[in-house]
Each structure stands twice: as C-alpha cells, then as structure tokens.
Amino acid sequence: xxxxxxxxxxxxxxxxxxxxxxxxxxxxxxxxxxxxxxxxxxxxxxxxxxxxxxxxxxxxxxxxxxxxxxxxxxxxxxxxxxxxxxxxxxxxxxxxxxxxxxxxxxxxxxxxxxxxxxxxxxxxxxxxxxxxxxxxxxxxxxxxxxxxxxxxxxxxxxxxxxxxxxxxxxxxxxxxxxxxxxxxxxxxxxxxxxxxxxxxxxxxxxxxxxxxxxxxxxxxxxxxxxxxxxxxxxxxxxxxxxxxxxxxxxxxxxxxxxxxxxxxxxxxxxxxxxxxxxxxxxxxxxxxxxxxxxxxxxxxxxxxxxxxxxxxxxxxxxxxxxxxxxxxxxxxxxxxxxxxxxxxxxxxxxxxxxxxxxxxxxxxxxxxxxxxxxxxxxxxxxxxxxxxxxxxxxxxxxxxxxxxxxxxxxxxxxxxxxxxxxxxxxxxxxxxxxxxxxxxxxxxxxxxxxxxxxxxxxxxxxxxxxxxxxxxxxxxxxxxxxxxxxxxxxxxxxxxxxxxxxxx
Length: 504
Ligand code: 9MR
Known about the structure:
504 residues, alpha/beta, Jelly Rolls, TIM Barrel, 2 domains, nine-stranded parallel beta sheet, globular, disordered N terminus, binds ligand 9MR
C-alpha cells in the first residue's frame, strides 16, 4: 500500500514537473561486441550472427518476415529518421523492407517504413521516417518481400530522434500570464495527444485545448455504419470518436476544458454524407433528408460527448468557413447545393436545440480582415444573431508578417466586436518567409499586437488558441508560424505574447 501511495505521488510529481525530457536517444548499431540487442524474429530456425566484417547476418529463414529485429523505446507521437544498409548474395536482386512491429495490449501490428531493391553483393540503403504511433512496444526490423529464404546482412543501422527540450524551471506560463484575461489554448492533433512528453508540457502552458482534426466530420462520421442504418432509414447517422478520445481523455483527467471543432464544414466531410444510402455513386439526397441527417449528426455528437465527458466541451464551432473568399456570399459546397442558402442557420438552430446548457456556439472563419469577405461574415453573424442561435465569432487569424498587416486586423476585430457577440481567436499562427532572426522578431511583433488587442477586449473574449505548439507540426510547418521551435524551445513570439498580457 505504501508503495502504491509512493508511486502515485511520484506520478503526480512527474506530471507537474517541467519537462526536459527527450525521446529515445539516437542509436547507431555497433556489432563489435556482439549482436547489440538484435535477435531473429522467426517461428522457424532463423538465427543471427556477427560476421567477420562486423555486420549482422541472418540465415535459416523460411518466411519473408523472418528477420533481424531490435526493440526500441520510442516515444509515441515523435518522428524518427531511420537508415540501414543491407546486402544479399543469393539472388540477382531482392526486395527489402525496413518495417516496424508495434504492439498494444499484446496485440501486434505492422507498418512498412522503407523499400529498396538490393542487387547481389551490393550494400543498399533503406531509409525513411517513422512517426511512432500509440503503442507500448516497437520492434524495428529488416525483412524481405517475396524472397522468403534468402540470407542477408545489415550494417550501419541508425535511428535519430528529435531531442525535445520543453520547459524548464524558469519558463513562464502562457496560461498564467493570461489567467485574469481569458483561457490560452492550443490545437492538439492525435499524434500529439498520444505523446506523454508533449502533453505534460502542453498541460503546463495551456488551459484550453481543441482537437486539430479529430472532431471534424471525416473523423466522426462513421460512413460504413451509417450505410447500414440507411437501409432502414436514410436520415440516420452513425458516429464514432476513436480519433478524439486520447485528447478528450487527457483533457478530462487534467480538468482542461475543450473547444469543439467543427460540426459543419465544406472540407474534411465525407462525400457519402450527402448521397442516398451514404453511397457516393448514388444521387444526392433531398433537402429534407439532408436536414434530418444534419440534425441527427449534431444531436449524436452533442449527446455522446456530453454523456462520456460531462461538461468538458465548453464551446463548439457549429459552422466553419461558410463565407467565400473575395465575396460577401456563401461559398459553393455540398451543403449549399443539397440544403440551400439557409444551411448555416439550420445548423445553428439544431446545435442550439441539442447543446448542453451553457455551451457556447460559434461561427468560425478566416481572412476576416479582407473585404468583401468581412462584410459577408458580418451579414451572416447578424442574421444568426437575430435568430438567437449564435453566441460568438471565432477569428481564425492565420496571418503572415507581410499581410494583411496589423491595422487591417484591428479594424476587422473592432467591426465584428461591435456586433456585441462573444469573440475568440481560434486558430492563431503567423507565417514568416525564412528562419532568420529578423523574421522571427517581426513575427513576435505581430503576435504581440494581436494579443494586446485581444487583451484589450478581455471582457468580450472567451479564449485565444494558437493553431499548434511547435513549428514542425504546424499545417504550415515550412513557414515557422508558431510560438515554439521544432525542438520545443520558445521563440521570440512566445515572449512577445507573454509581454502583451500586461499591455492592454
Ligand atoms: O490543422 C489542420 C490540418 O492538420 C489539416 O490537414 C487541415 C485540413 O484542412 O485542417 C487544418 O486545420 C484547419 C482548420 O480546421 C480550419 N481552419 C484552417 C485550418 C488550417 O488549414
């Protein structure tokens, strides 16, 4: 009992302590003193041995998967660069594969990482990147494809992980800087949510999460199950939440609220949703069927999330990006085609009907700073407001240091705020053209300006979310848009955001 108590205390300490952890240390095979942890993966009589030249050889194989493998303690959600040289002398050429056998709850499954053709007697390189999934055990191995009994050798196996240096005792916390203003959040995708090193850091810095992709219709709508239901009633909708669960579990265990993104969108929504019998080959359904599906979908999502995670989801993007770029009108979409121009209003009506008490309903869009789209957004919000179904507007704010410029952002913010709705900055990121200090300083300036603006509207703002944490995992990774470098160190923008909290 004392041991259990001690372990629990240690676990809690580890969760709270600043994270300076790295993933699996880099590895380079060294067969000078033996097999270096490599072993034969085989149900037959395959065996491994070190050759006189210092390579690792396998012989006695009777199936393609009979191979040399080694266990690696990989961190879920981290990516690794892998490389190995392979040589065979028995065939003119042989297809070779670098693979991973991963298991969870003792159940093993496989992924191929790299393929190459090894010509007789030639050292051939297999190299690739592996993003470690949500598994407890990882075995990396080299196998053949259609050459089941061939003997071969490997040498120079290397694995390079990224060493993350998150946090540290003195790093200030975003959520604390903004504690008196509004929650400071981030988008989190599945690969991050299953990575304990990252999530410990995210829980320190942020007090609001939103799934980056996992509550979108293409993650939630279960097309196969809906198809089965449609045989009895074409308006029924089946949903599933496997992709969202790691983040929802983590957030609920840590008591961190979640913003839901998004119920209705023209993208990341299965085409089948709009067709008879959920079959894209069949005609589009009628307006009536689609409206019934829309309500059933919204009801199912709201009901399931509230039942399994009571009170966790505090707000939803009901509709995302409905207004066209360069116009003050709705963009073309399946929703517009099948339902008609009132689909946004109907979605809000249903969301209001099924949302738990107190859950705020948002319309969310990008490029608010640009006309005539800005006017389109204001018109849509005004219509929703008159119907009493919308609580607020989410400014995505995917910006760049060169455009649209702070003046336009501020003007848009003031115009929308005058509607009197609640506001959020829902997807903040700022791209730069290169990774120079000058660009990162300019990025910091814009981040600081936007955050000072949000802080000056703190009474009206329900939260600010950055659209990711480290640059490498951003949807615009090549343009370094976030507050932390790929290795977890804070950028100038991080400090500018902290500083802006006191600048309203
Ligand atoms: O960050 C999301 C990225 O992982 C997806 O590939 C992409 C697909 O459209 O969606 C990204 O998130 C978008 C968000 O849902 C809505 N606003 C724009 C965001 C960036 O594309």
